[in-house]
Amino acid sequence: MSIQIPAASSVVENLENAGRLIDQHIKADQSFWELSGQLSIATHQTANASGNTDRDYPAVQSYWPALESMPFLGEVNCTPLPPELVQAFENMQCNCAVGLMPLVSRAWLTIDSTIYIWSYEDGKDLAYFDGLNEVILTAGLLKPKEGVFQEHIEYLLCLTTPVEIVVLGVSFTDSPSDPYSEMHLQPEPLFNLPSDNVNMLSVVGSPEGRIFLAGKDGCLYEVVYQAEDGWFTSKCRKVNHSVSRLSFLVPSFLTFSEDPLLQIVIDGSRHILYTRSQSGTIQVYDLGPDGQSLSRVDSIQLGSMVQRACYAARSMDQSLFKPIVHMAVIPMSDSSTLHLMAVTQAGIILIICHIWFEPCSNPFCAQGVRFYFTTTPNGIPGRPSMLAMVHVRLPPGHSPSSTIPKLGGTVHQSFYRRGALLLSSAIMEDRDQLWIIDPDMFPFQPILIETVISRPLEGRTWAIAEAIQPGDLEAVASLASLPPSVVTQHVRPPRRFILLTTQGCYVITRLRPVDQLRALLESSKGTASDAVQSFFALHKEVQACAMALILATSPNKQLAFWATDAFFKYGGEPHIVFPGSSGMYPPGVGGGLATSTPMTPSAQFQQQQQQQQQQQQQQQQYSTPVQGQTPSSLPHPYSSSMQMSTPGSYGNVGSLQGSVGSSGALGRAVMGPEVVLSGKHDGLCRYLARLLRPLWNEQVAVFYKPPGDMQAEQVVSAYASEELSAFMEQLYSLKCFIDTNSHLLSASLARPGSASPANIHQRVLSYMRPEGMVTTSPSQVQTTLLDKYKVSDAQVFEQNSLQNICSLVTQCCESLSLWKLICEHELHVVAEGLSQQERQQLVATTFRTLIVSSRPLISSVISALLNRYAGDTSMTESLSSRLLEVAPSLYSQDDAIASKARELVTVARTIQNREEQLQRLKESVMYYSKVVSRINLPSVCELCRDLKFYSGVVELALCAAGAKDRKNLAVHFYKSGQPQQDVNGQTAYIERQRCYSIVTSTLQQLLVEEQPAKRPSSVPAQPGPPSPTVERQQLSDPREEFDELLALCLRSDDELFHVTLYSWMITAPVNLTDRLVQVRTSYIEPFLKHMVASQQQQQDILLFLNLLWRYYEKNKNYSAAAKILDQLANIQSPNITLDQRVEYISRAVMCAKSCNLATSGSAIGEFLHELEDKMEVARIQLNIVEAIKALRPQTANTRAAVEMLTKELMDISKLYGDFADPFQLSECKLSIIHCATHYDPILVESLWTEIIDKELALTKKQSVENQMQSMYSKLIQLGQVYIHSERFFPLEHIISVLEKYSCQQHWRVDFVYTTLHKVGVSIQTLFDIYNRLFKSKLPFWQMVHQPLSIIYSLHCYYRDNHSLIPAYERSAFKAMVLDAISVYLVELHTATPSVAGDLQMKFRQLQTQIQGLYMDKDRRRLL
């Protein structure tokens, strides 16, 4: 699905801040003292005592007289015994026994051989069993082993008689309201075993289904049963665990006297069994780590315990420590090091442990619960190894100044569970006194402080138990440590204790603190009473406000109104304090026992409080459990130091960052200001933390392997929908409270500029020395600051925090509602739509993460949920409406629109008609465009790509880019050169680029598909007609699709998109620069100019300059193109070769000429002339480079010169002076002076001489023909360049030099003039030059005796090529030639025969032949 929940950083940060507060308050609720720490038990080797001071059993009304009427017990109901039982008593002959079955809300009574069982709630549902012939001694309701009996057998009823043991099956009629509404006893026993004439006095079952019996003979028995008979064992048998298998060999007179076992108790949390005998001996048996074995470990005699108890409590009489009337298990949830308590007849409690332990260095575990390192002699930790009495807890009334009445009478019944101890003492023969002792009123204390409640009872108490709610045992067993009841009172009902007496069943309700607050509000008809005010003082503001919220969110409107009034009236106000000052902890702050300024305290309490404050300041430390101290002597329970020792009491002190003089040591005086939050704030946080505590750090889902398929893993919810509903109900009630009391979030007190704690801190510190104060006393400075800033600044601080908390409450409601909705639609099916990584992430996610910071994951899960019903329009719309209802912040109206769009895409997939499909897709894009900021853009565009709806990709991507940057910050950022300090612009630019990249990736995909190698095979995968998708693929041409998409992109008016598109075209895998320069948009030219100006790398600058001139040339802006080309040619860079520079200038010249043809301006003409000059110089520079490269050998100088010449174009002077002249490049020097029109005849002639000499030197060792050919090529090359520049082509000098070398090298006689004639020198010019050379009579010619031979050869060349002479010059030239021949004949006539030779005759013949030239033409002309 394409839904994407935007996670604004501020929203997530606020939720995270609120989440950290919840973490702190959950930790505060977990930071309670372990029982051994409260009793200051340091080791198993010694014993100590408690209960002998007023602090152990305080009288609340002594300190708060207004709480005199505060109830501790609820309504006491007494249900009489059923009339049938009263009648049955009249017929009793032998024996009766009674007991309670709290697991099924039943009481039982045996009269002789009949057992009666009835509901103790109303005395109804009486059932009986009279199928036995013997007197029933005892009975017990037990949990059966799993897999042994049929499913309808829920419990076992074990009955013992003097001769047999009978086990009956118990079943119940299933009822939605009460699973144990109607009880049924199976008529036939399941097992029947002989008792071997041993009276069984007690029957107890273990959680694993084992049955143990206490024999009057002092032995521990077990009924072992199984589903079927074994090879060597029967289906059911009785085992004696107190004797060895060889005991039958011992004579009977050697056995000890019997000590009947009176009681068996089993610690199900540790799998340990204890027995108590009539003499007071206690034995411990280890049932093994899994509870399936049994071994006796140790025993302790009553005398040993009495001796240690007398030493620990020396003021007590020895007789008070015996006999023991009851023992009870201290489970793991109550203590990790204390295991058993024994209650004496005087009400004294003896605490017993069965393991060795020593105090550890840190007396708190990770949850803040105090523990000790425990081990056994064999090194196995945790299993019992011995028995030792380690503590004596005296009953109330043993303090000399105690106002609590002393426990009277003899205790004959006792009960202990979850910290509550009930004692029933006989004060008269037919009257008992009930004592309830528990610490619920004083949680989180470092010492055990208990409330004492007493009440008279009519009749003699037979049995005591606690009513257990369904699932309560399992819930308690799952906890490693059970928090104080104040933490769970919002979900746990008041504890109800059952007392079975001779007058009937008493049901006594122990009121929770919140019930007491309810009673005070109802009795006071509101909050205007000292009692309510004293209640807040007693429990402290945080705890009392949390309790008030329980009532304020209740359905009772009147009660909710009173509780709300109390919450705001007594919840305190935030203010600023200085740590270390007397005002740091103001009245009502923290979650401790009492306030430092109670409303109506006694004078004695005020004096004690002041003393404890002074003592605290002297010691400079607090007795907090976090410090791991076990105080040997603690102050009065209501003193301020005890307030300090309350875990979590610092939760409402918010330190301002950077406090001056702050110190990390707790309790050390510092000068930095801190904000103390109100009890309302922390009470709300504490209550919310308690609501969320059971699931806050728990996983939302787990992997589950179905029984039928162990290979498959399904993702299932860790909590059922019913459990989530219970949490949601309380959270929605709290949300309703917040919404109703909107002034809780009122920001009217907030002042401008005072919105953050840091701001408060800065302003407070700015007044560390208030104006006008001359004293330097820190206390006076603090007092002045507190007077000035104790209200408004702290309120601003608190308002911000409360806003975060209220946002978290809303988020919790929506997240849990959403999760419940997902579970209702089968999470394991929904999770199949997630990726494997997302499934792993979901299973690893806690509810805290889900609520606070898992919006991307929630988005994925919602998408998977909607995808499950893809194609079902009605179901999708219904589900979308439901999501809008339960989680509007997680699934908004925009998300619903996105869901509608996604449904249209799904429908379009199934449509084969292309036109209809495109119509659906256009509609979906229209919907997506409305909520483009809330969708998963890449996913949606991918769907459009799959359906070849490329226009939708462009539309959505550009729409998303605009939505992410509505102020066009990205465009400004781009045009400003992308400055680093423009963070907002940079962010907008990046967001836009992400959107644009979707379009460019689509273009690239089509571009790659366009290539022949990438096209899919046209061979079908299977026979048959082609699918519609295949048809569309065959009909669609990637090239056409690419062209259409590119044209669509170019029609966009998004400038930044054009920038991105052009950039992609430059870097595309297929060269698209030719198409880029053909683009006709208003953005291409500014883009290219901007890229040229913004690039840092020279190579990139060259790239965009090349594109720019090509763009100008394509658009016939020849003038701009010529200028860019000229700029390219003159850039100094090793990345441009000299050939490229020449090409740039050449193209510039062509562009300038094209521009000159179109316009007639003088400026372009001058520019063209300048370009032509540069072109000529560039060619010279190119020639110089080639010449230098041709030099041999190549040296460092030559290479450096080449490198310099290729980097830039140089002026002509530098070329001559730095390169041509130093390297003696004659040809280059000639071309330079020619280009510069610098005429120096001597220089020109010398350069030509050097050129000829170098050419001859190169061919010196070659043949004559090769020499002539080389010279011929050079003359042709240079002659074509300079033939029209007579000053730079000195023919006479060149001919003179060449003829000399021709004679010396024995070249052909006609080589020089024929070569020059090929160059373009006319025959007339050659005759004239040669004639002058002959007349000059140079010594060289005289020495070689060949001038006339050369002249003769020239004349012969003329004879043979006379037709090359223009017609209008022929007669004059002929006459000149004949005259010259006459002169040559005269010269030959006077010459020596050796010189003249046969030349004279040849010249005469040549003369005759020349005279005959043109005769026919002249004759025809005359005729």
Structure description:
This protein has 1423 residues and is an alpha+beta fold. It is 47% helix and 14% strand. It contains 51 helices and 37 strands. A five-stranded mixed sheet has the order 1-25-22-21-20, with helices on one face. Strands 7, 8, 9, 10 and 11 form a five-stranded antiparallel sheet that branches. A four-stranded antiparallel sheet has the order 2-32-31-30, with no helix packed on it. A hairpin with an 8-residue loop joins strand 18 (282-286) and strand 19 (295-300). The longest helix has 33 residues, at 792-824. Mean pLDDT is 79; it is low at 1-8, 246-250, 252-256, 361-380, 474-478, 581-671, 747-775 and 1028-1035.
Properties at a glance:
single chain; rod-shaped; disordered N terminus; 5-stranded antiparallel beta sheet; 14% strand; 1423 residues; alpha+beta; 5-stranded mixed beta sheet
Structural class: alpha+beta
Compute the average pLDDT: 79
Instruction: Tell me the strand order in the biggest sheet.
Output: 1-25-22-21-20
How many individual β-strands? Answer: 37
The global form is rod-shaped
How far is it from the N-terminal to the C-terminal residue, by CA? 110 Å
Proportion of beta-strand residues: 5-15%
Unreliable segments of 5+ consecutive residues:
1-8, 246-250, 252-256, 361-380, 474-478, 581-671, 747-775, 1028-1035
- Helical percentage: 40-55%
Summarize the biggest pleated sheet.
Answer: 5 strands, mixed
The gyration radius over C-alpha positions equals: 56 Å
- The number of helical elements comes to 51
